[in-house]
Amino acid sequence: MALYLARRLLQAALVMLAMSLIVFVGVYAIGDPVEILISPDADQMERERAIKALGLDLPLWMQYLSFLGNALRGDLGRSFVFNEPALQLIMQRMPATLELALGATIMALIIGIPLGLYAGLKPKSPAAKTIMTGSILGFSLPTFWVGLMMIMVFAVQLGWLPSTGRGETVEVMGTRWSFLTWDGLRHLAMPALNLALFKISLVIRLTRAGVRETMLMDFVKFARAKGLTNQRVIFVHVFKNIMIPVVTVVGLELGSTIAFSVVTESVFAWPGMGKLIIDSINVLDRPVIVAYLMIIVMMFITINLLVDLSYSALDPRVRLENK
Amino acid sequence: MSASSLPQGGLPTATVTGAPLKVETPFRRFVSEFFESKTAVFGLVVFVLAVTIALLAPFIAPQNPYDLAQLDIMDGRLEPGTVGGAGFTYWLGTDDQGRDMLSGIMYGLRISLAVGAGSAIVACLVGASLGLLAAYAGGKTDTVIMRLVDLQLSFPSILAALMILAFLGKGIMNVVLALVIVEWAYYARTVRGTALVERRREYIEAAQCLALPTWRIIFRHLLPNCLPPLIVVGTMQVARAIALEATLSFLGLGVPITEPSLGLLISNGYEYMLSGKYWISFYPGIALLVTIVSINLVGDHLRDVLNPRLKK
Amino acid sequence: MKICNRVALLAAVSALAVGLPAAGQAQNITIAVGAQVTSLDPQYHALSPNYAVAEMLFGALTGFDANGRLQPGLAESWKPVAPDTWEFKLRPGVKFHNGNDFTAEDVAFSIARPPTVPNSPSSYAIYTRAVKGVEIVDPLTIRLKTDGPYPLLPTDLGQVAMLDKQTHEGATTEDFNSGKVAIGAGPFRFVSFRSGDRLELERNEDYWGPKPVWKHVSYRIITNNGARMAAMLAGDVDMIDQVPTNDIARLRRESRVKLSEKDGLRIIFLGTDQSRDGESPYLSDNDGKPLPRNPLRDLRVRQALNIAIDRPAIVQRVMEGSALPSAQFLPSGTFGYVPGLEPVRSDVNTAKKLLADAGYPNGFRITLAGPNDRYLNDARILQAVGQMWSRIGVQANVEAMPWTTFAARRTRQEFGAFLSGWGTASAEASSPLRSLTATPSREKGWGGSNGGRYSNPEADAKLEAALSELDDAKRETLLQDATRITMEDVGIMPIHIQKNVWAMKPNLVHDARADELTRAQDVRPAAK
Fold first, then answer.
1. pLDDT band at B9 (very low <50, low <70, confident <90, very high)
2. What's residue A315's pLDDT?
3. Hey, is the C-beta of A80 within 8 angstroms of any chain C C-beta?
4. What is the pLDDT of residues A6-23, one digit of tens each?
5. B213: CB partners within 8 A, 6+ apart
6. Does A57 map to a domain?
7. CB neighbour list of residue C150: distance below 8 Å, 6 or more residues apart
8. How many domains, chain A?
């Protein structure tokens, strides 16, 4: 087990090294950050000074090596735009994104699993058909469009919820969270639902597919034959089996939800790290882009590892390879 | 890919038995089961209709919306049903450039479908092959492929696509390429996950005992059993590909502005939604929605029909 | 219905608040702006949203009024005491938020600091570079020496925020952002700043100028147009800037929202590639074969392309009226505006004839590039120009791309023609002449944004003379001459000058500014 973990960590380091190189070359290829950051009034001399100040006059490989050297000491560079450590900038905004992503995931599970169970157990009922059609709509609609429609209806027309932004925050253990205040929850509701829509559909489909398959399996028939109650069959035997794909996908999706909250965050002006990354890409703020990706990669690797571990716990047939 | 692989599995049987019409072959059984669902048939009809419109667009559209010389900004943002300067009626109105929305949707459908289907097919071929290989071969091959998958999945797809497009420049082929690079890992992971369970089952062991060639075990035995989740992912990925293309266009990096896809038409019109000019965004949105929903209706039912475990 | 009631109630409540004599001034305002404030350090990143914030928190020696004309700020007056020396008289009795007096020492410190700010991507040093020597005459008088006559010094110093030497010596950009040293002499004091989200300010009770109306200002950053608009319509904010042109027509009919407008200082124009003499990959004949010579070097071709553009159509259809057709850099009333230089009427036949005379009776193909995320409706204007050129046989391959990509390609002349914009915050013509059309020269600092590498020695000579002419009247004539020469040679093709539009609740009054800055001191409750 320890060996397995060590191997995975080594692989993680390699993945991160590859990522940082790709991003470095990628951002370099897109364009010159000085072009967008510099005052239009600046002349050629000022331009050269700015390029030098940001260390962009060095050859790319030298920039990369000095980045690597600093990264090993835990310094991922300073933002070109904000002149603050990139890591610090991202960490300041991480709680906002985390609460958005977790809110969306919880919504997806709470709404998705019961609907999926129902649709799987009574596939022929009209309600189940409605649920399934709804789930198709859920991932057919473009997120940014739905977001705007939600703002139009719930904030502008009905005036029930605030249109954009994050609500009041409370400081807990050094970070500011908004889900602990009523105002914060009101602000959180729409963006979280917007982000959850796709995942609700996903959970519904996975749950339904799992239920339908499992219900036909021999062990379920056997359990019924043994005289177990319907409830026990569903919630113990069936549930355990369908949780494998649901755990995998929701686990994987949590990471991607955090990564893809960019669209929701820009539509709802949610001050999270997704918004930061889009803004940073627009101005090619390379230190922030690289640092953000490093964090995301780390998160994904951790999530993947956890998913693999829970796989082996839930399904003994899958063994962690130790060869 | 899923739909086309089936007839190949079924038709040879029919020719070998040599029997005319009445014999039940796997393919016929599949067809008749598929047609049991009215919604799926409806989806198929709509989808075929959408494909037909897309293919025939140059012949049936009142205007070539990609030719700037045929547009006139003085006809911009006209309401549906207005007769324009060129003398024909804009049944669905015009966008800000004076582009006939009906023609724009027909041509846009062409691009969206081509981009969505093209990227999904290629991504599925690449992803599924690598996923199967990883699961079957195990060991180092598995490790390398799966770390590649991790690498790909840890890269936010919008960002990856954005960089690829910034590097390659705009254009339909580049969008397809970017989407393939972004999406293949989902197929690989899904197939590997299922295949990992399947390959330890008895029938694979039995096949191995019979000394069947590896490719045959993979494609004839392992693959069909990995299909159901692949189809679930596949249908969702087509929708995702089209939506991602829309998002890329929304960010200004998708197809060229003079040749808008449905996604780009929606993004262009999105800015006019709040000011009441709904038709610029609404009709392309409906077209996109109907197309995606029809694909999903078909895919959804296909999955039920194809799942071997539902037929015991 | 419900909204109407809510709005009516709101209006009634705020009207009540305004009406009460004692509580009349004690109000809060929430403003949502469309551009990112990147730093509270007023000398770190030269960018207009940062200027706007600096003018609320800090202030400079000189300033600009709503029309962009120079006016006194922390300096009461200034005059040249020798051809190479300017003397500034400081405003007496000005205190920083921490109670320190504002003196000539602080001015000397503030002018010396910009080049020392580390990692600046866009330094304010370009505005202090002309200062070669500083002489403190008394606590309220300071003399600044320049290298030869430099008439633009008071204008340049309008961009340089004044800091407190005692507080800011050794202060870093982070110290400003955290609020530790966000201390100035401006009308508002710092409360809190959450980067990318909002800046909270409160009234500076000891402000030297007119007492600020607002007790508390919440300055929110909402970069997405739709989201900002929705926040306004939902009543979550009191005022927004950068109102999308598509919404203007509807908002004029909307009773819950009022608009304020001002002709801006930003020109949108087209440039052409003058760098190549022979073949260009971005120009070809109608069959796609390269042209042996660059047609854009021929004045008649440039005139034809210019005459083909129907500016009123672009203004009316693309900009929905929120722009002015233009034939020069600046709107009327500014320093260096050329009276009588009006846009040509678009005329397809004249344009075709000019093309035929130049040897291109059937036109040619051209790559027309531009940004799609920098200027109002930039990509739409590009397509409209493409349409208009196609009418005279010039087939444009329109390429709209993000600014970062476009700027890099523009520097490499990877286009036939390009769309760009220029904002002249100082409202005088030397700025665009020097950066956009002067022959690029590293030593002189000219042509920094001259994407097409246009060059006209005659215009250069006039500009050169203007830049060392201290007499305002003579300088203006020289700038007008340079502008006229450039425009007659179609050095660039101006399209229009943008109007700046703000939206706010009907109970507010806003002094709209030409320089696009959104500042809390320009808003006040409507008189009862």
1. very low
2. 62
3. yes
4. 887 787 788 788 878 887
5. none
6. no
7. C84, C86, C130, C467, C468
8. 1
Read off the CATH number of the domain in which C100 is found: 3.40.190.10
- Whether B250 sits inside 8 A of A144 (CB atoms) is yes
Those residues whose C-beta lies under 8 Å from the C-beta of residue C64, and which sit 6 or more positions away, are: C70, C71, C158, C425, C426, C427, C515
Q: Are strands C239-240 and C70-72 parallel, antiparallel or unpaired?
A: unpaired
Is residue A237, in this structure, part of any structural domain at all? yes
Task: Check whether residue C172 and residue C307 sit in a common domain.
Answer: no
Residue of C nearest to A35 (CA): C407
Closest residue, chain C, to A268 (C-alpha): C227
Cβ <8 Å between A53 and C435: no
Tally C-beta pairs within 8 A across B and C: 78
Q: Which residue range forms the structural domain that includes residue A120?
A: 86-319
Q: Are residues C452 and C368 in the same domain?
A: yes
Domain count, chain C: 2
A31 in contact with B at a CB cutoff of 8 Å?
A: yes
Mapped onto helix, strand or coil, the DSSP state of residue A196 is helix
Residues of A with Cβ-Cβ distance to C411 under 8 angstroms = 32, 35
Domain harbouring C310, CATH code: 3.10.105.10
Please indicate, yes or no, if residue A125 is contained in any of the structural domains: yes
CATH topology of domain B35-59+101-310: MetI-like fold (1.10.3720)
Q: CA-to-CA distance for C173 and C45, rounded, in angstroms?
A: 10
Which is nearest to B219 in space by CA: B5, B3, B4? B5
C-alpha C156/C-alpha A46 separation (Å) is: 15
Q: Would residue C396 count as lying in a domain?
A: yes
Q: Are C174 and C306 members of one domain?
A: no
Which of B72, B273, B275 is nearest residue C387 as measured by Cβ atoms? B72
**Helical (H) or strand (E) element with C438:** none
Mean pLDDT of B164-183: 82
* Whether residues C46 and C171 fall in one domain: yes
Tell me, what's the pLDDT at C6?
Answer: 42
In a domain, C257, yes or no: no
What is the predicted ipTM?
0.77
Please indicate, yes or no, if residue A58 is contained in any of the structural domains: no
Residues of chain A in contact with residue B154, where contact means CB-CB under 8 angstroms, are: 15, 19, 255, 259, 293, 296-297, 299-301
Nearest CB among C174, C373, C445 relative to A44 is that of: C445
Domain of residue C436 covers: 264-499
User: Which residues in chain B have their CB less than 8 angstroms from residue A132's CB?
Assistant: 300
Is C198 within the bounds of a domain?
no
Is C116 exposed, middle or buried, given 0-12, 13-18 or 19+ CB atoms closer than 10 A? exposed
Both C56 and C156 in one domain: the answer is yes
| CA distances in angstroms from C15 to A94, B264, C8, C24, listed in the order given | 41, 44, 10, 10
Q: pTM for this one?
A: 0.82
Check whether A264 has a pLDDT greater than 80.
yes
Residues 154-213 of B with CB under 8 A from A: 154-159, 162-163, 166-167, 189, 193, 196-197, 200
Residue C239, domain member (yes or no): no
Least confident span in B13-17, B293-297, C34-38, C339-343? B13-17
pLDDT band with cut points at 50, 70 and 90 for residue B250: low
Give the gap in angstroms from C-alpha C385 to the nearest C-alpha of chain B.
10
- Which H helix or E strand runs over A218? helix A218-225
Residue spans per domain, chain B: 35-59+101-310
User: Residue C249: CB partners within 8 Å, gap ≥ 6?
Assistant: B275, C320, C321
Task: Tell me the pLDDT band of A247, cut-offs 50, 70 and 90.
Answer: confident
The answer on C207 and C280 residing in a single domain is: no
Distance of CA C287 to the CA centre of its chain: 41
Secondary structure (3-state) at C448:
coil
Chain B residues with CB-CB distance to C233 below 8 A: 274
Low-confidence residues in chain C, pLDDT < 70: 1-26, 528
